Recover the amino acids of this structure.
């Protein structure tokens, strides 16, 4: 690991003022420290923001909840109000990593988790995300776990988060502190970006911006919801494919629908067409199957990850079915 | 009140060193407080084949705390191999940093020694090495078949005529099974503290076989073996990766010699993929012929594996096919491809773990084809004679293992037709497999020291044995307790030091039998000598304290040794077992759960049911890992492993493991050795993979012949109704 200086920010002003181009904010450290050990991240300065007072979950004026950026994933997932209002979010978060990691990992940090692409993690390998212009090793290499949607010839990596898949289904607003001390709101669907020609940027955050909160609207899918995570072992594995599904039923048809996939793109992949299709339809097998077909229609898999198309369809149908049967 | 009977052999006592371990007081290789210790960090090549053109160490040399940078340019000259492709053994030399040639991705190319671990690590990252890459590296197994060769005369075995046997058969199975590269990954990283002092070497190391490690060090540095002392009282797992000596130990000794201080070197988890052994990929082609009534007529087992370009290691995958069943026509062929990867080496049950996956899957396929119960099919072809060695088995309770296991498991409830046992989204399947593992026994020496203190006799046992987490301390103490009639809390077991009497170390499932018979001999010698001195008849029972008093002694020492008898050599000595698995496969997602397993083992005298249970459970977990997810993947363009950490190399988690019921059959096998002990360290892993894969077939109707069986492979196989046998 490269030597670095460490400062603990006592307040947000201190954090923002201390930031330079080679700084990195540290919250739970569950991803950043791993990357520093691998020399993937080599900050000169670590600004510890873990004790800033963004550490509570509060009710907001939209009758929803605001999740502090420094609240741990474990505390968020197990929070009584979160479980009641957004059980889909809680379920997704509890499927992630291990109890130990969830105790350390924060909500803000979860949004900034970097890809698990093996070429990104190994500094001897080419990777445009790590070293722009060095090439994409995965493109003609081992890409069984890579994207089937929205990738570019510069990068085919996926976003590894479970929490973010649920947030994409539910909808959220991310509040960030800008370096000049003002704040701004980012719609969650605009928070993560596609790789295009600049895969080094995972999100639309600017250098030095600090996530302070995630705002959620009034409760979402508290009756019909399911987070399905397909992985190689029962815990402590990233998703091959995951699906967050939630809907409301009014008069026998689905009124509001939230559907997103993980493990398929550079961002949590919101299934807009499938959502639209399901609205006004009865929750039954044939509609679920039609939605799944629609969702995977534009998938462009590689040879090694074409299983994701079939697996993705089955996962969507299963997640919707489980969501329906949960209360029906 | 403890009595000697309560702590003698056969009792499920707690580990005698357990308290030390949970208190954090058991010292592992790098936990010894050595004065003036400095730290080393090794560097790995980033090409698979070629040579080093230049090394720029300017920045590293100027970095804080750096004491020495060692590369092929200034490395100590070591003994290198006399022949081009030597076979690797447990005492083989381990020359390192001897030339600028690169043979595999991740090969050691340098070492930085600094005052602190962090300084060494950082400085190592500053060294820039320029390579001339040779694009002829062999990194693609599939494309290199034509380069396969027979590594030795033992690579071909046959009895009878397999082709003739196949012609006589009513049904034939011809299938190929694949197992990937796997890694041992013991919890304790490979690590060492080495001190070179005037040509004498003291090494704290994490090794399974201390005597052989000392021989390897002495051979590499060309110093007398007596000048090498290895200390390893606790070893945090090995699984075969610590049987032989790996390059890091040699580098640490070399560094200590060059800087004049003790040097600590820890192999990182990432380096444990590239520098401390692996199990290679195997492709196993099986051909089986059988009559309609289930009589086997032919069994052919052809194996294609890989070794490195510098040395030979052949995993004997075909071994189990030579001795398991009563089949007159048998052919085993083993071939290797020399690849630009590290040299593979023994990993838990080398041969059986992977070979049994192919054999016991193919046997299941044949049973299905014959519409025979797979248990009855195996029993029909049981043999009490080892046709390969042409010797009788000293004992073989395989039929009993299968029968008793079937009863305990509820095999009668199995639906013969796949996809007929369903529950919601789950397809439920039952699978069975038979297991065997050689139960070797090797010459072992031990010393006991008796001290009469007040009215109690305190005993010290000394031998250069190791406890790699298996329970050696405990069973050695129990053996002394049994034969001296002294409770274990008066017995101090001292192992893990080459200054103690020589043993074969821990490996190959010979540890328990060898250690305990050695200790038994020392105990017997002590008592006999004390009796002879006082003209007491051998068969008269006299408490040890009284014996010492009668001899007017307050302390007494005796040595003993044990080795295979002449009778032992007239028999084939094996442990046997059977595995039963119930698996639930999700009909859509390809995820599955191992719901429960029953393992029946016939492995001679069980010294301690608790530690024995741990051995079997550990083996089963590792066997389940072979099926669930364990695989090391080679990058096709660079030749590196893209699975570089436990985040990528998936071992089973607790939630993956089933409710496992382990049953030990009572077995008296005095031919195996005086105490009737057989090995169990490797029996547990054997054929677990086939048992699970067979259960997956029974659940889904799909034969999965390529490990691991991941959700993606099940999805690709198509989980739709139908049987693709």
């Amino acid at each position: 690991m490269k030597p670095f200086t460490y400062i603990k920010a006592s307040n947000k002003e201190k954090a923002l003022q201390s930031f330079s181009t080679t700084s990195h904010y540290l919250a739970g450290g569950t991803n950043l420290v791993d990357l520093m050990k691998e020399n993937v991240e080599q900050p000169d300065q670590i600004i510890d923001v873990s004790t800033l007072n963004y550490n509570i979950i509060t009710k907001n004026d939209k009758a929803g909840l605001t999740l502090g950026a420094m609240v741990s994933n474990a505390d968020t997932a197990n929070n009584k109000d979160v479980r009641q209002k957004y059980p889909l979010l809680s379920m997704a978060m509890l499927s992630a990593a291990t109890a130990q990691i969830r105790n350390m990992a924060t909500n803000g940090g979860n949004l900034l988790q970097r890809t698990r692409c093996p070429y990104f993690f190994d500094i001897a390998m080419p990777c445009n995300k790590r070293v722009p212009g060095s090439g994409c090793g995965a493109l003609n290499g081992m890409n069984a776990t890579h994207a089937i949607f929205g990738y570019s010839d510069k990068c085919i990596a996926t976003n590894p988060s479970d929490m973010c898949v649920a947030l994409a289904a539910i909808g959220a607003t991310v509040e960030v502190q800008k370096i000049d001390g003002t704040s701004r709101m980012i719609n969650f669907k605009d928070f993560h970006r596609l790789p295009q020609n600049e895969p080094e940027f995972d999100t639309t955050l600017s250098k030095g911006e600090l996530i302070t909160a995630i705002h959620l609207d009034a409760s979402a899918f508290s009756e019909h919801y399911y987070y399905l995570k397909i992985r190689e072992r029962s815990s402590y594995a990233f998703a091959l494919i995951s699906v967050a599904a939630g809907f409301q039923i009014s008069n026998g048809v689905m009124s509001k629908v939230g559907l997103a996939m993980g493990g398929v793109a550079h961002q949590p992949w919101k299934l807009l067409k499938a959502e639209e299709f399901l609205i006004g339809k009865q929750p039954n097998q044939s509609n679920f199957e039609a939605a799944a077909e629609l969702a995977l229609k534009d998938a462009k898999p590689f040879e090694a990850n074409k299983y994701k198309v079939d697996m993705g369809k089955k996962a969507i149908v299963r997640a919707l079915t489980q969501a329906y049967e949960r209360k029906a | 009140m403890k009595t000697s009977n309560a702590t003698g052999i056969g009792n499920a006592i707690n580990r005698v060193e357990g308290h030390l371990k949970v208190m954090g007081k058991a010292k592992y290789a790098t936990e010894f407080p050595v004065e003036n210790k400095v730290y080393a960090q090794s560097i790995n090549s980033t090409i698979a084949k070629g040579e080093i053109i230049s090394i720029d160490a300017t920045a590293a040399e100027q970095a804080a705390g750096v004491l020495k940078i060692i590369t092929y340019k200034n490395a100590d000259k070591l003994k290198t191999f006399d022949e081009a492709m030597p076979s690797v053994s447990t005492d083989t030399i381990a020359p390192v940093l001897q030339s600028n040639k690169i043979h595999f991705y991740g090969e050691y190319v340098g070492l930085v020694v600094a005052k602190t671990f962090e300084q060494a690590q950082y400085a190592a990252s500053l060294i820039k090495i320029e390579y001339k890459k040779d694009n002829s590296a062999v990194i693609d197994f599939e494309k290199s078949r034509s380069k396969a060769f027979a590594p030795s005369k033992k690579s071909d075995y046959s009895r009878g005529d397999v082709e003739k046997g196949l012609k006589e058969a009513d049904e034939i199975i011809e299938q190929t099974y694949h197992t990937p590269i796997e890694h041992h990954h013991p919890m304790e990283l490979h690590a060492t503290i080495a001190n070179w002092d005037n040509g004498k070497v003291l090494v704290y190391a994490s090794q399974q076989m201390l005597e052989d490690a000392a021989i390897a060090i002495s051979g590499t540095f060309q110093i007398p073996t007596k000048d090498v002392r290895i200390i390893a009282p606790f070893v945090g797992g090995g699984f075969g990766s610590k049987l032989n000596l790996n390059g890091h130990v040699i580098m640490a000794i070399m560094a200590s010699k060059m800087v004049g201080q003790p040097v600590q070197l820890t192999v990182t988890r990432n380096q444990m993929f590239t520098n401390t052994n692996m199990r290679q990929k195997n492709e196993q082609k099986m051909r089986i012929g059988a009559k309609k009534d289930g009589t086997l007529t032919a069994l052919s087992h052809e194996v294609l594996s890989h070794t490195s370009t510098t040395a030979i290691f052949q995993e004997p995958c075909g071994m189990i096919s030579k001795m398991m069943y009563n089949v007159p026509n048998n052919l085993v062929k083993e071939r290797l491809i020399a690849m630009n990867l590290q040299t593979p080496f023994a990993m838990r049950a080398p041969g059986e773990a992977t070979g049994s996956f192919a054999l016991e899957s193919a046997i299941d396929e044949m049973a299905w084809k014959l519409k025979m119960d797979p248990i009855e099919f195996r029993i029909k072809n049981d043999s009490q004679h080892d046709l390969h060695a042409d010797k009788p088995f000293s004992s073989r309770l395989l039929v009993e293992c299968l029968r008793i296991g079937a009863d305990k498991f509820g095999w009668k409830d199995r639906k013969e037709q796949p996809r007929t046992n369903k529950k919601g989204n789950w397809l439920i399947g039952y699978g069975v497999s038979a297991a065997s593992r050689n139960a070797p026994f090797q010459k072992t020496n031990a010393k006991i020291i008796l001290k009469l203190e007040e009215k109690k006799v305190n005993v010290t046992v000394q031998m250069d044995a190791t406890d790699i987490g298996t329970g050696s301390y405990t069973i050695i103490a129990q053996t002394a307790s049994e034969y001296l009639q002294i409770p274990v809390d008066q017995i101090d077991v001292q192992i893990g030091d080459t200054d103690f009497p020589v043993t074969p170390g821990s490996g190959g499932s010979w540890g328990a039998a060898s250690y305990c018979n050695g200790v038994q001999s020392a105990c017997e010698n002590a008592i006999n000598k004390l009796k002879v001195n006082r003209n007491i008849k051998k068969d008269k029972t006299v408490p040890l304290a009284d014996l010492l008093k009668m001899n007017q002694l307050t302390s007494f020492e005796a040595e003993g040794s044990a080795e295979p008898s002449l009778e032992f050599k007239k028999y084939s000595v094996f442990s046997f077992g059977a595995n039963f698995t119930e698996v639930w496969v999700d009909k859509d997602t390809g995820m599955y759960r191992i719901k429960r397993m029953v393992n029946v083992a016939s492995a001679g005298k069980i010294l301690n049911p608790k530690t024995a249970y741990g051995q079997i459970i550990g083996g089963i977990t590792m066997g389940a890992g072979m099926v669930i997810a364990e695989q090391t993947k080679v990058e096709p363009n660079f030749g590196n492993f893209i699975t570089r950490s436990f985040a990528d190399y998936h071992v089973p988690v607790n939630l993956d493991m089933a409710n496992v019921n382990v049953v030990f059959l009572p077995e008296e096998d005095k031919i195996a050795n005086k105490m009737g002990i057989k090995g169990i360290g490797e029996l547990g892993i054997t054929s677990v993979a086939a048992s699970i894969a067979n259960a997956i077939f029974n659940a889904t109707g799909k034969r999965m012949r390529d490990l691991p069986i991941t959700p993606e492979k099940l999805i690709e196989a198509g989980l739709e109704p139908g049987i693709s046998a």
In short: The CA atoms of residues 119 and 125 of chain A lie 6 Å apart. Chain A has a mean pLDDT of 97. DSSP finds twelve helices and twelve strands in chain A.
